[in-house]
Amino acid sequence: MQTRITGFTPAGTTDSGSLPRPAVWRIVGVQGMVAAAIAMALLFSGMATEARSAFLGGLLAVVPNAIFVSWAFRHGGARQASNVVSDFYIGEALKFVSTILGFALVFIFVMPLSAGWLFATYAAALCVYWVAPSILAGGRG
Fold first, then answer.
1. Integer CA distances (angstroms), 72 to 10, 84, 91, in order
2. Angle at 117 between CA 114 and CA 123, to 5 degrees
3. Which residues contact 141 (CB under 8 A, 6 or more apart)?
4. Which of the 8 DSSP states describes residue 6?
5. Cα dihedral 47/49/53/56 (nearest 10)
6. What angle do CA 74, 91, 36 make, to 5 degrees?
7. In the Cβ-directed half-sphere of 104, how many Cα atoms lie within 13 Å?
8. Which CA distances in Å does 6 have to 15, 75, 77?
9. Secondary structure element (H or E) that encloses residue 80, with its range
10. At what angle do helices 81-109 and 48-72 cross, to 10 degrees?
């Protein structure tokens, strides 16, 4: 009698409900493009302080997420399950600390600063996580 494992997908493939591993990095890239587009639009509008603030807001979203992705997706496969869970927790903690530290450094050292554009671009880059997976998965979500 042969046992069938449901929900199993070989490395490098995906089932209908998930994205392949490289797509995670594409989402971080899309975040960066959204933030850069906002900053460039402000810069070309002659709003240098707002553009710099928007750029920093984008960095505050993208860099911690890149740190998380780098750490959380180091291991893969069922045999590494305990490592994967541990890496997700550590990655999330690193993301949280780097975000707090980043905001603190910006508010201490960057003057003048447009806090509105800083937070708006930060929020726009974070919203990419809600939209990009369905786009990158081909609208299957």
1. 19, 7, 5
2. 140
3. 133, 134
4. T
5. 110
6. 95
7. 6
8. 11, 21, 15
9. none
10. 160
Cα–Cα distance for residue pair 51/58, rounded to 1 Å: 10
Query: What three-state secondary structure class fits 62?
Result: helix
4 secondary structure, DSSP code: P
Helix (H) and strand (E) counts in the chain: 4, 0
Would you call 74 helix, strand, or coil by DSSP?
Answer: coil
Q: Is the pTM of this model over 0.85?
A: no
Per-residue H/E/C for 6-72: CCCCCCCCCCCCCCCHHHHHHHHHHHHHHHHHHHHHHHHCCCHHHHHHHHHHHHHHHHHHHHHHHHH
For 72-117, the pLDDT digits (tens) are 887 666 566 777 788 889 999 999 999 999 999 999 999 999 999 9
